[in-house]
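Q: What residues go here?
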């Protein structure tokens, strides 16, 4: 268009130029044109103009090398590349309105770049490698035909790309690396639809890649690497996958975050360099599959998941990433699932620490808690997460606790979360979630959904969750559903049990020639009940309505209702009486290992293997229905953990009830702590005590967090903690699961347990929660620290109760030092660890159940302490994992930050209550 405007002028001048083809008067006429004057001025302002520039015949062709004119005496080209020129450009150069090419690269020109705004015909501008210091304020204005702009390696004062660049609609190549560009990459670059090359490396750019750039369909080369600003370029790089013509992508040495986007199948990428950024996530298969790739550099990011296998010529991916394995190959399924979860959040940098192939291993991933190799808890509150809640959470089948509160999550709560059978706590409060809250059927799940945008139709926009789906404490709905379902299940089970009873009774008649067994109503007499463990709902609370109670009685049965018949056969665990008589030498007194609350324990030999045979007290057991006993056996068989004494078999014979357990050769913890003279054991070292404490905590944690039910031990004490020959501990006597009519009332009235270890609320109200065990555990910790019994009759009355005087002594470190077990030889380190355990014991024995930590907190805390000692002689449980040196500090820090405040006050620490683990 502009060119057309000049056409008449051009025609006007034409006769003039034609008129004077040779030197002489015609030459003089040429010299008189404005353009010629400008070139002559240029010659003057250069300190060393080209030697050929003599005379005034600028357009004559013979003298002014590098100057091109048109027939009208207009200067159309100035090409002075690499002429070692110095000096400046005269401002009059802006009058060369016919100039199409200005190439000055590779000289030493300095000073200001004059305005180019009148050069409407300018096609090529090359200024690279000079010493210019300033650009004109109207830089890039009025250059509609500019195709190539090259201005790299200039010591310019900082400048930012002007919006006027949008007018350079013809621009194909914009190369300005090392040219002091600051500010952001402007979104108006998107107007440059012909752009093929954008090279802006080594500048001071900050900010992100504008999404608008996706319109640059011709862009082949994008070089933004090595920004020199402190902040560098940052943000996600998603847009690069939209650049269909892209061949070279250099983004290295910046601060880009987020994952590599998915590339289209027709991508033409040749050179992909994103080294040295903060990119996260799994390298997409769509990148790996690009056949044109020749050069791939991914090192020093936070890539996760499987290590990619590229066929490109140059591949640099090894250093500084978090791939699950050192070689290409699939990750552990748990890793895959967790990374899918992270993917829902867009692989935030915070979750880049989810690296490697063992989320539950010795360097456990942050934000998780595991039980063995299963993730049981995920805590991602206030992590600034955006994106969505991935349905992949549903693959974490043992997940109990999920906290996603206080983020910016969008989308819906995936329905798949309702399939997590163990989920008992879901907090998604204060996000931007929409849709409806799915119906969770998990019994007593704690659902916290306030502060979201659920149910727009309800008109409740993220207020307090007034609409029924966002009921903050969740959900009458799911509860009543649960009750209905449980009711149906119960009815079915009762029917099956009756049929089973009938069949069993008939079979017994055929088989059993001995004295008949009481076949009284199985759910009759509960008052003489001696059993210690009970099954309660997943939340560990027992204060529920009477109608719900039968459900919990049968929950373990219903979980496995196809095996009702097994309940009476128990998979060959049943042993004949004759075998056990032989094993124990007819219950020889000399074989007695101990006497417990409801039976005598004998040592025995079965098939050459030592076992412990518990002969239940017939006086109390005899009145118990066989079915109940069998049901208990059925549950006990499911309770298997390396820190729980395993049930190997059982025997029923008449009124006899016998249980066969694995034999623990190391005696009881009690014998090792306070009965040393009797037992002849040497005192346990602090390290040994810590290891035992951790073993016990793990056993109890498992009981509390078992798949369908929560088991509460109710009688945790040192004499129920058995040791093996390596002094590793197992909890025993978690006993028999009560199947009697265990309504709230009976639960509240009958207290089993041992004085001294009884939690106050349990002793006074009979209310049983998992915190009852935590209390007892705290008492045991105190006993391990002091070597004293919880109740010592030999001491004056006000010193007899260990818990009381322990807490009293904790106030003064000096006093406390004298109070600890004198047999302990404590280094400074172990003293510190002892103080930590004392602190833990203190909190476990809090008067009120709520402030007491959960067992998994005890495990966490102790495992970090035990880990410090590991080099001495502890073999850590491999599959449960400890914490590495780094993990330890991290974990302690996390503990302190999130849950726990340790102050240096007189009593070592203060404790703020934690409601969960
Ligand atoms: C950047 O340009 C300056 C001249 O302006 C030059 O001296 C320097 O070597 C260049 N740096 C790079 C990294 O090319
Ligand atoms: C999640 O589970 C489903 C069904 O078992 C399976 O198809 C899918 O591959 C799993 N996803 C992950 C990430 O493990």
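A:
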């Amino acid at each position: 268009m502009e060119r057309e405007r000049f056409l008449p002028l051009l025609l006007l001048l034409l006769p003039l130029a034609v008129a004077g083809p040779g030197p002489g008067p015609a030459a003089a006429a040429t010299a008189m044109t404005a353009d010629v004057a400008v070139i002559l001025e240029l010659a003057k302002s250069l300190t060393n103009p080209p030697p050929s520039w003599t005379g005034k015949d600028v357009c004559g062709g013979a003298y002014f090398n590098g100057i091109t004119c048109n027939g009208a005496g207009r200067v159309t080209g100035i090409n002075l590349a690499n002429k070692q020129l110095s000096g400046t450009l005269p401002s009059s150069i802006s009058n060369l309105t016919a100039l199409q090419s200005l190439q000055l690269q590779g000289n030493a020109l300095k000073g200001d770049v004059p305005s180019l705004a009148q050069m409407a015909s300018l096609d090529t501008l090359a200024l690279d490698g000079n010493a210019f210091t300033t650009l004109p304020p109207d830089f890039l204005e009025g250059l509609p035909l500019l195709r190539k702009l090259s201005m790299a390696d200039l010591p310019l004062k900082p400048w930012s790309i002007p919006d006027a660049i949008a007018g350079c609609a013809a621009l194909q190549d914009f190369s300005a690396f090392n040219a002091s560009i600051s500010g952001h990459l402007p979104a108006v670059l998107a107007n440059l639809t012909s752009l093929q090359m954008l090279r802006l490396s080594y500048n001071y750019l900050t900010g992100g890649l504008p999404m608008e750039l996706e319109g640059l369909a011709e862009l082949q080369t994008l070089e933004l690497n090595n920004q020199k600003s402190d902040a560098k370029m940052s943000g996600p790089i998603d847009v690069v996958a939209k650049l269909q013509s892209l061949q070279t992508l250099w983004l290295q040495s910046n601060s880009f975050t987020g994952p590599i986007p998915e590339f289209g199948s027709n991508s033409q990428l040749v050179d992909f360099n994103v080294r040295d950024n903060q990119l996260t996530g799994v390298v997409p298969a769509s990148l790996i599959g690009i056949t044109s790739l020749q050069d791939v550099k991914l090192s020093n990011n936070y890539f996760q998941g499987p290590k990619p296998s590229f066929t490109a010529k140059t591949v640099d991916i090894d250093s500084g990433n978090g791939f699950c394995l050192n070689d290409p190959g699939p990750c552990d399924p748990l890793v895959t699932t967790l990374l899918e979860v992270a993917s829902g959040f867009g692989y935030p940098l915070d979750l880049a620490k989810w690296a490697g192939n063992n989320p539950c291993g010795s360097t456990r991933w942050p934000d998780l808690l595991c039980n063995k190799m299963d993730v049981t808890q995920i805590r991602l509150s206030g992590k600034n997460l955006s994106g969505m809640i991935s349905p992949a959470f549903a693959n974490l089948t043992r997940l109990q606790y999920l906290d996603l509160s206080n983020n910016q999550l969008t989308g819906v709560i995936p329905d798949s979360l309702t399939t997590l059978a163990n989920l008992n706590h879901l907090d998604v409060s204060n996000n931007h979630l929409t849709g409806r809250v799915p119906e969770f059927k998990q019994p007593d799940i704690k659902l916290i959904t306030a502060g979201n945008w659920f149910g727009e139709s309800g008109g409740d926009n993220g207020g307090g969750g007034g609409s029924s789906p966002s009921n903050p404490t969740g959900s009458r709905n799911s509860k009543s559903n649960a009750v209905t379902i449980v009711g149906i299940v119960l009815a079915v089970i009762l029917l099956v049990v009756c049929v089973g009873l009938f069949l069993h009774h008939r079979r017994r008649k055929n088989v059993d020639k001995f004295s008949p067994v009481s076949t009284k109503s199985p759910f009759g007499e509960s008052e003489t009940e001696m059993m210690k463990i009970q099954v309660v709902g997943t939340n560990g609370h027992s204060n529920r309505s009477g109608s719900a109670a039968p459900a919990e009685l049968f929950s373990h049965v219903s979980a496995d209702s196809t095996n009702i018949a097994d309940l009476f056969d128990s998979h060959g665990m049943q042993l004949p009486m004759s075998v056990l008589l032989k094993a124990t030498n007819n219950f020889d007194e000399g074989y007695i290992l101990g006497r417990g609350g409801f039976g005598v324990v004998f040592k025995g030999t079965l098939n050459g293997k030592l076992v412990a045979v518990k002969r239940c007290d017939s006086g109390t057991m005899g009145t118990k229905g066989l079915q109940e006993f069998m049901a208990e056996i059925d549950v006990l068989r499911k309770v298997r953990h390396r820190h729980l004494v395993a049930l190997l078999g059982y025997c029923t014979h008449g009124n006899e009830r016998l249980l066969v357990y694995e034999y623990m050769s190391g005696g009881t913890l009690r014998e090792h702590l306070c009965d040393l003279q009797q037992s002849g054991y040497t005192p346990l070292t602090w390290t040994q005590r810590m290891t035992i404490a951790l073993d016990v905590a793990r056993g109890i944690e498992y009981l509390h967090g078992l798949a369908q039910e929560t088991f509460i031990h109710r009688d945790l004490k040192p004499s129920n903690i058995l040791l093996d020959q390596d002094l590793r501990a197992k909890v025993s006597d978690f006993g028999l699961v009560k199947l009697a009519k265990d309504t709230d009332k009976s639960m509240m009235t009958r207290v089993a347990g041992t004085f001294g270890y009884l939690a106050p609320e349990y002793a006074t109200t009979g209310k049983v929660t998992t915190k009852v065990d935590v209390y007892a555990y705290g008492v045991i910790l105190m006993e391990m620290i002091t070597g004293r019994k919880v109740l010592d009759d030999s001491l004056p009355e006000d010193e007899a109760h260990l818990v009381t005087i322990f807490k009293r002594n904790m106030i003064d470190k000096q006093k406390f030092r004298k109070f600890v077990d004198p047999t302990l030889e404590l280094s400074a380190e172990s003293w510190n660890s002892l103080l930590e355990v004392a602190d833990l014991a203190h909190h476990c024995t809090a008067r009120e159940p709520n402030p007491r930590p959960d067992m998994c907190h005890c495990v966490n805390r102790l495992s970090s302490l035990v880990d410090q000692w590991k080099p001495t002689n502890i073999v850590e449980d491999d599959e449960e994992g400890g914490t590495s040196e780094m993990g330890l500090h991290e974990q302690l820090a996390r503990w302190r930050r999130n849950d726990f405040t340790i102050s240096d006050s007189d009593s070592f620490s203060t404790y703020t209550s934690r409601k969960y683990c």
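A: Context that may help when evaluating the design: The first strand starts at residue 67 and ends at 69. The mean pLDDT is 78.
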